[in-house]
# Entry
Amino acid sequence: MKRQPVTLLAGFLVAAVFLSMLVLFQVRQTEYVVVTTFGKFTRTIEEPGLNWRLPWPIQSLHRYDNRVRNLERKYEQTSTLDARNILIQVFMGWRVKDARVFLERFGDDQARAEQVLESILRDAKFVAVGAHPLSDFISPDPKDLKFDAIEQEMLASIRPKALDNYGVEVTLLGIKQIGLPQSITEKVFERMKAERDQLVKKFQGEGAGEAIRIVSEANLERDKMLAEAEKKATIIRGEADREASQWLKTFEEDPELAVFLLKLEALELAVKDRATLVLDTRTAPFDLLRAQPRAPESGK
# Structure
C-alpha cells in the first residue's frame, strides 16, 4: 500500500511524456516544417525551437532540409548559335525556400523535385548555349570568352520559374566543363591556328614598321650630326686658312726666316722623344746643327 503513490506518480510521468510526444515537436536549424491538418496546409515553421501540434492523425508534419543542395546535369551535346556542337555540363545549387509551395507540388517526394529541376536546367542550358556562337565558349583569347554572361542568362531564366512554381530558390549556377566532339576538334584547332598565324603576321608587320621608323630616325640624326660636323669643320678650316694667310704674308717678306722656322720645328719634333739618330748633317733639317759661319763684324 505504501508503494501506491510512487506507482501513481511514475504512471503520471510516463503518461505526461507520452502525451508531450504527441503534441510537441522540435524544429532544427537546418530544416523547415510544414504542419497540415487532415492533409491541408496549416502553417510553416522556419524558426528553430519547440512547437506544439494536435496529435496524429489530426495534424501531420512535413520536414524539408533548408540547406543548399547540388544538382548536376549530365555531360551532353548541345548546338551553338553558329550550328557547332559542343559538350557541356552545368551544375546548380538549390534549396527549399517556400515550403508550402514545395509541399503542394511534390509532397515529400524530393527525388521528383530534382527530376523537375533537372529538366528546367536542361532547357535553360539549351536556350543559353543556342544564343551564343562557339567563340564565346572556346577561343585563344580569354577576353572573348563569355562564361559569366552565359551563366547569368541561365540563372535569370531558371530562378523566377523555380521560386514561383516550385518554392525552390536557385542560389548559384555554373558551367562545370566544356568539350568538343571528335568530329569538330580538328576544325577548331585549325581555326585557332589560323588566328594565331594572323596574330604572328600582325606582330611581324608592326615590328617591321617599328624597325623602319627607328632606322629612319637614326639616319636622320646621323645626317644632322654629319651636317653639323661639316659646318664646324668648314668654320675651323676657314679660320685656319685665315691665320695661315697671315703667316704666309710674314714668310713672303722674309723667305729665309720662314725656311729656318720650318726646319727648327721639324728638328724639334724629331728629337722630342730623346731619340738617337745617325744622319748626315747636310740633310734638312739637321743641317741646322752644323756650325754656321759668323757674319763679319761691322767696321773690320
